[in-house]
């Protein structure tokens, strides 16, 4: 705070702080308080709002606890989001290490261009591209049939399709934090570990990963939060048996017209996501300041 006032002066620093306060109150605090208000009140017709039946209760939350199907979808969404996070990390870590420690300047420029340019396209269109690729008569089945790997088309839509679409959709949110963390690692430390006889896996486990833990934690937090709150990929690439909890929330709001129950479901998802984030930060022994860097 003191550095801010010393750098920009009293008036300009105060203006920045006021803008941040307005953003926090108007875009973060107020919407969440309104959501909590909706979640604690019953779904009533307009004429009965404010009447004797309009009282605060936990009925909308207990409904989720008692609804077995919704509870199962909620738990599935959480572990599936964890699987998306793990898969994205497995895909991104070798790429990030190569970009940070092995790639030349020209190779790095080409790799960044190839990764970033597709994200200039809207997420819905990119997900539709995956829908076409994974379609029953799509190019993936055609290629596998042509190579003789499968003898008949496979229906890829479902859990596998959602996993592939989400890994692709959120790859940059995992890749770039890890890349930035590994880039600051001195190559001499990796060379020293190799000279001392450490195998490749031990070098990564004892040298690279501990150094990049803040970047890994940041990527995992971003990816998990985005995956748990995703709607487009499950809606387009999923099947009736692979519904996501966000689809249930959407149905309560826009099809069932029960904003109160939808708000309760949304708060439960938000609360558990925050819990997972705090646990992740505790496991990696980093704090929010490290994630914000």
TrEMBL record:
Main location: membrane
Domain ABC transmembrane type-1: 74-280
Keywords: Cell membrane, Membrane, Transmembrane, Transmembrane helix, Transport
UniProt signal peptide: none
Localization in the cell: Cell membrane
Regions that span the bilayer: 12-34, 78-98, 110-133, 160-179, 214-237, 262-284
Xref: PROSITE patterns: ABC_TM1
A Gene Ontology BP annotation from the UniProt entry: transmembrane transport
Domain of life the protein comes from: Bacteria
Alphabetical list of Gene3D superfamilies matching this protein: MetI-like (1.10.3720.10)
GO CC, alphabetical: plasma membrane
Membrane topology: Multi-pass membrane protein
InterPro entries assigned: MetI-like, MetI-like_sf
Record family assignment: Belongs to the binding-protein-dependent transport system permease family. CysTW subfamily.
Protein's name according to its UniProt entry: Spermidine/putrescine transport system permease protein
């Amino acid at each position: 705070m003191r550095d801010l006032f010393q750098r920009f002066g009293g008036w300009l620093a105060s203006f920045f702080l006021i803008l941040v306060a307005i953003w926090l109150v108007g875009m973060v605090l107020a919407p969440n308080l309104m959501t909590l208000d909706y979640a604690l009140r019953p779904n009533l017709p307009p004429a009965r709002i404010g009447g004797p039946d309009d009282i605060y209760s936990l009925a909308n939350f207990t409904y989720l606890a008692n609804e077995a199907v919704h509870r199962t979808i909620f738990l599935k969404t959480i572990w599936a989001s964890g699987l998306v996070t793990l898969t994205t990390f497995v895909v991104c870590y070798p790429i990030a290490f190569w970009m940070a420690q092995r790639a030349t300047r020209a190779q790095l420029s080409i790799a960044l261009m190839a990764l970033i340019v597709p994200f200039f396209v809207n997420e819905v269109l990119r997900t539709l591209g995956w829908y076409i690729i994974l379609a029953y008569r799509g190019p993936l089945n055609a290629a596998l049939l042509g190579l003789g790997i499968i003898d008949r088309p496979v229906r890829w839509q479902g859990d596998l399709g959602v996993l592939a679409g989400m890994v692709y959709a959120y790859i940059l949110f995992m890749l770039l934090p890890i890349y930035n963390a590994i880039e600051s690692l001195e190559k001499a430390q990796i060379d020293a570990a190799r000279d001392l006889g450490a195998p490749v896996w031990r070098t990564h486990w004892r040298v690279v990963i501990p150094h990049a833990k803040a970047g890994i934690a940041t990527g995992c937090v971003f990816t998990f939060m985005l995956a748990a709150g995703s709607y487009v990929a499950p809606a387009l690439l999923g099947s009736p048996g692979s519904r996501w909890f966000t689809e249930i929330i959407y149905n309560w709001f826009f099809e069932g017209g029960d904003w109160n129950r939808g708000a309760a479901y949304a708060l439960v998802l938000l609360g558990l996501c925050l819990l997972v984030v705090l646990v992740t930060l505790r496991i990696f022994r980093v704090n929010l300041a490290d994630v914000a860097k």
